Automatic annotation (TrEMBL):
Pfam families: AAA_31. InterPro entries: AAA_dom, DNA_Partitioning_ATPase, P-loop_NTPase. PANTHER family: P-LOOP CONTAINING NUCLEOSIDE TRIPHOSPHATE HYDROLASE, PARA FAMILY PROTEIN CT_582. SUPFAM superfamilies: P-loop containing nucleoside triphosphate hydrolases (SSF52540). It comes from the Bacteria. This is Chromosome partitioning protein ParA. Residues 21-198 form the AAA domain. Gene3D superfamilies: P-loop containing nucleotide triphosphate hydrolases (3.40.50.300).
Amino acid sequence: MHNNSLQDNGSSQNRDGHQPNIIAVANQKGGVGKTTTAINLATALAAIGKKVLIIDLDPQGNASTGFGIDRSKRKLSSYELITGEADIAAVLAPTAVPGLYIIPSTIDLSGADTELVTMSRRAYRLRDTLEFDPSLGNFDYVLIDCPPSLSLLTLNALTLAQSVLVPLQCEFFALEGLSLLLRTIERVKSTYNGSLAISGVVLTMFDKRNRLSDQVAKDVRGYLGDVVFKTVIPRNVRVSEAPSHGKPALLYDHRCSGSQAYMRLASEILKRERKAKAA
């Protein structure tokens, strides 16, 4: 078990008596900035004083690598959560960011989809393990980095989450892939998780010199309206370099345009939350 400063408080509610906000970061298309968004949004939320847990549910384990968690040190992982062999406290690892913890991914997760097919309550494995885990109550936010596919792992994340954040690359086929994902979210809502909502769509890899980026942004906003966040994540070399150094962009270079954009996104999410609570 990792030694960390979080202590169980005996309930799955957090310090204010509320459930943590559980957000699945999902898009079945790879290369859209999904993991980059999960890493840097989690870091930005921690930077403004929130207690954050990131669950790496992608067998590639890029979120874990992006926080500098060495593969050889990942003894227990999100795989043990899915199979019910371990609880949060057993698999939790601290990161270099104060207030931010991660449940890493290992290669074991790559076989989980096949194993889940034969398990009872296969869509609810993650929820069944975490729902009454007292450690969950220590966090304000739980971000789940989903695999780039509409797999049973993604289904488990969507069944647990309260909302889905969709990173969308500003490219020609963006809307085509998005409509498939939105249909999947609706199916999950009607079959497995009636309270699932869309937290928002965030446009990523925006290149202001490229007219196509502008056109895609207009099309997506025209299609989805206010579901799309005002904050746009630009293409940024420093954000791309950061994972190879095992650091979130906000630690690698907090002044770069990408880091600043993720701070704005965190603020926008908090504003939306406050507005929803007031409504």
